[in-house]
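Need tokens for this chain, all 195 residues.
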Amino acid sequence: MNDKNELLSAIAGKNRGLLVNEIDKVAILAAIANLEDHNPNPNPLEQADLLQGNWRLLYTTSRELLGLNRFPLLQLGQIYQYLQPAAAKVYNIAEIVGIPGLEGLVSVAARLEMVSQKRVNVKFERSIVTLQRFAGYKSATEMVKQIESGKKFFPLDFGIEGRDRQGWLEITYLDEDLRINRGNEGSVFVLAKVA
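Here are the structure tokens for all 195 residues:
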């Protein structure tokens, strides 16, 4: 089994990290490190064409993201990250599912600042919490178009530029359909390109 298949097998059925135990975590982190050792694009930020587009989160150790699943009667749905390297922008969109008619969205828009061929500083600019029906939500790509058009969302849509909300991400693996990031809080993210 090759390193990529080994990682995908290790994270299968783990619900993005919500269903892991300590043994799973160790095995998954070892599989991630194995794959990172064979990164076909050691300077991933030079690969704008590979980075551009919509990515779906397969696995993370981020407590902040996985914590979105703690609300009663609601569950964390799909999580997307839409990258626009040429514009130095990123959009994170988390779907919240559960009670019919109350499906939600939590979205954050940020600006990227390249600091090396692998690492970007992330400066968060806008946060949105809304119901999918209020946003007319169809897909993460369509949501990004609405955000970029300047649309305001109800009930929560606010700027977060001056609130010291920033961090960094390092892209440690990139190919045509898989990306691995490591973040400033020690979090790991495994994402698959959405066709």
